[in-house]
Amino acid sequence: MTRKRFLEILPGFITWNVILFLFWGGYFIPVATAYFILAFDIFWVYKGLTVTITVLMTHFKMLAAEHLDWLREAKGFLDWKRVKHVIIILIANEPAEVYRKTLEALAKQSMPLNQLAVVMATEGRYPNGEKECEKLRAELGSKFGEYLITMHPANIVGEIKGKSSNEAWAAREAKRILIDEKGWDIQYMTVTSNDADARLHPQYFACLTFKFLDDPHRYERFWQPVVMFYNNIWRLPAATRVVNTFATIWVMGLQSRKDRLVSFSCYSASFRLILEVGYWDTDVIPEDYRIFFKAFFKLEGRVEAEPIFLPSFQDAAESTTTWKTFVNDYKQKQRWAWGVSDIPTFIEMFINNPKGSWINKMVRLLRVIEDHLLWPINWFVITAGATISTLVNPKFARTSVGFMLPRISSVILSITLLFLVILFVIDSKRKPPRPKDVAFWRAWLIPFEFALMPVVGFFFGALPGLDAHTRLMLGRYIEYRVTEKVG
């Protein structure tokens, strides 16, 4: 067995052993298991407190950032007009209306549009995308400094179909055309990974210009907007609306944690950095964390993700029926959880790149491992842990510890209800206004939808996470699946 294969087995092995411990531990060592559950509950309250504080910090920083004239700030640098932004819009089989809206959002940028180069990165296996992008050239493409259409060939040997391989192809084409042929200065270029549905705040590129010029370490930086799954939030069934609301809240919390912040979904970097690390890998599914840690370890731990407190509004997983929406959301969360497959690679990178701050690199690595390991475990310990112990051991349930375990656990976790109220208020202020075609009474029901969390937390959190860990452990690797979009 190779070291990499051993490391692939390890996350699933740990996950299953912790979950099964609740059963056999509750039977053989019930008191120790009870203390483990209570300790985990206290840890969860701590996590809830830190997330609530950081979400509040992010909210107020966003309010400040949204009201600042970032173009005026950028103009404080004499060379601000030299900065060029390459935006790679990743297109697969989405309806054309989805990326039309993305282009319309880009056309509203406060930054002069002649400093933006839009790259419509289409896939050879979906030829209709190239045709639709050509139709948009005259209508919207002509507004930008450059409007390029690339087509990533299908079935390249050694590649895995997906966002990462398409992005690498598009970036290489952009370099060939913009830098090699047209002579753009790579020292003044950024590149943005933009999903087909990601609509950036009108001041995003003005803010990015300022931050790029203001940072002496600009060639060792990623810049991360606040990803918010709100484009279609009012169209979703209650269950997946709750799931994607909490996904947005979690992302908001990370935005104010520079020690945890990593490029996610929609992000920017200096073009020079992407070229230096050899572009995105073409044989992986999760590309955002991979490109960050690839750069992080190659540049000896000096790479950081800088927050931009402006939103990138994106679609939550959706489909044409409620059931298909559930399936689509599950598959998306499974793909996110498949990021656990990066852990063996990150450990290999850590071992093979000994230079730089050992502590900094170790802390970064451990936090990624923590997030992925807790993903499928949280629900079982918090929601079901106390109940499982008393069910598998009725004799223990009649002891003082067994009798008090569910009650103490409930009291500890009830503290998180206060956090939930605060997070709900922040969410209501950030969520787009109710569309006219959505009944008024539905808005009043939203607070009660949070009662679905124990159920949806299992089906759209723990289960897809456990699914991903188990597949990796068994060597049953998943294929990239484009999240369905509804125009």
Automatic annotation (TrEMBL):
InterPro entries reported in the protein's UniProt record: Glyco_trans_2-like, Nucleotide-diphossugar_trans
Domain of life: Bacteria
Domain named Glycosyltransferase 2-like: residues: 195-425
The keyword Coiled coil is annotated on this UniProt entry: no
Residues annotated as transmembrane: 7-29, 35-57, 373-392, 404-426, 438-463
Keyword terms: Membrane, Transmembrane, Transmembrane helix
Name of the protein in its database record: Glycosyltransferase 2-like domain-containing protein
Natural source organism: Candidatus Amesbacteria bacterium RIFCSPHIGHO2_01_FULL_48_32b
